[in-house]
Design goal:
By secondary structure, the chain is of the alpha+beta class. It has 4 helices and 6 strands, in the order αββββαββαα. The chain has a 6-stranded antiparallel sheet with strand order 1-2-3-4-6-5. The two termini are 23 Å apart.
Length: 140
């Protein structure tokens, strides 16, 4: 199957497909995907740190994905043309932000790797090792 641009539906599908995942609803109905009680994909509610630079309107489509390290975060956010970004609120936090409206700038393969990596850095060592061992292309 040819790769295609990623969608919000892909975020939900990929996150939900990982083992031991629980989908919770945040206080305003925003989806939160967790493994072992730890969030790895978090749909944010509109916040003052993520606003339209022209109108000041808070963005309602920001998704947070955990990353393993600061270098992973930098690799995703340092290019000004990248759909991934961070804000001062997330300085020192192992995560990146992406607007749902910009997901089409990456393909499903890249999104899959990002969501799987987010899961891996939040899952227990035992769960991560078992999942990796079962993946033909990721270490098994």
């Amino acid at each position: 199957m040819a790769d295609r641009p990623a969608t919000v539906g892909d975020v939900h599908r990929i996150a939900a497909s990982m083992p031991h995942v629980k989908r919770l609803e945040g206080p305003k109905g925003n989806p939160i995907y967790q493994v072992g009680g730890k969030s790895f994909v978090f749909f944010r509610t509109p916040q003052p740190d993520c606003t339209d630079p022209d109108t000041g309107e808070r963005w309602a489509d920001v998704i947070m994905l955990w990353v393993e390290s600061d270098s992973d975060k930098l690799a995703l956010t340092q290019d000004p043309g990248s759909p991934f970004f961070s804000t001062p609120h997330f300085d020192g936090h192992p995560s990146v932000l992406v607007r749902a409206g910009r997901l089409a700038e990456i393909d499903v393969t890249e999104l899959t790797e990002l969501v799987q990596d987010a899961w891996l850095c939040r899952a227990s060592t035992k769960r991560a090792a078992a999942w990796l061992a079962a993946q033909p292309t990721r270490g098994g």
